[in-house]
Amino acid sequence: MSHPADADLLPRLLAGEQGAFRELIGAYQSAMRAVAYAIVGQRYADEVVQDAWLAVVRNLDGFQQRSSLKTWLLTIVANAARSRLKQNRREVLLDDLPAPHGTVDDARFAEDGHWAARVPAWHEDSPEALLTEDELRECLEKTLLSLSEMQRGVVLLRERQGLELEEICNLLEISLSNVRVLLHRGRLKLFATLEHFEETGQC
């Protein structure tokens, strides 16, 4: 879903327009949940996002536009998630092993975390192709669910929400090297699923 322009949306939000709030939620709910999921896990993610939206409503008048509306929202949900984490006295465990080097898979990604080459598009020219697309999507979703919470959160924030690696670091309060490791390993698992599906037609 495309994100509405702050200049258009913010005055409507400040005026209390309900339609503007619906647009805001529709545009940013998934990104906020991805941040919450990465920090507190699936069990508490929805509660954290709900708390974050309440904080947004309470503090909207104080938004000073020093950052984009999206960055402001994601910062609020990240802070809410960390508060919940402290409340639960729960530790998030990161993969602390070094990222693999010298493998053929490394060539797929550039140093900045972007794809080294454009991923080829899937063609949907027939009902059979459409069915295959749905089956592949289901396989990839299963693989995402199999990732650790932090790993899945990083993958979602990078691949689905388009956040830069530095922004993910700031939101999750983890190092750039950890973000790279988590993203790299998540991508490798997704690629393994994709390649297996291409070879066998099955998950």
What does this structure look like?
The protein is an all-alpha fold and 203 residues long. It has helices at residues 6-14, 18-40, 42-59, 69-88, 127-146, 149-160, 165-172, 176-200. The longest helix is centred in the last third of the chain and has 25 residues, at 176-200. It is globular and about 55 Å long.
Q: Give the class from helix and strand content and strand pairing.
A: mainly alpha
- Total of DSSP H or I helical runs spanning 4+ residues: 8
Mean of residue pLDDT values = 80
Q: Kindly, what is the distance between the CA atoms of the first and last residues, rounded to a whole number of angstroms?
A: 28 Å
Which overall shape is indicated by the principal axes computed on the Cα atoms?
globular
| H and E string | HHHHHHHH
Radius of gyration over all CA atoms, rounded: 19 Å
pLDDT below 50 for ≥5 consecutive residues: which ranges? Answer: 90-105
β-sheet strand percentage:
under 5%
The helical percent reads 55-70%
Number of strand elements = 0
Largest sheet: none
Family: Belongs to the sigma-70 factor family. ECF subfamily.
Organism: Metapseudomonas resinovorans
Keywords: Sigma factor, Transcription, Transcription regulation
Pfam family, one: Sigma70_r2
Which structural traits does this protein have?
mainly alpha; 203 residues; 8 helices
Summarize the structure.
This protein is mostly helical.
Write the topology of this structure.
Blueprint: H1 6-14, H2 18-40, H3 42-59, H4 69-88, H5 127-146, H6 149-160, H7 165-172, H8 176-200
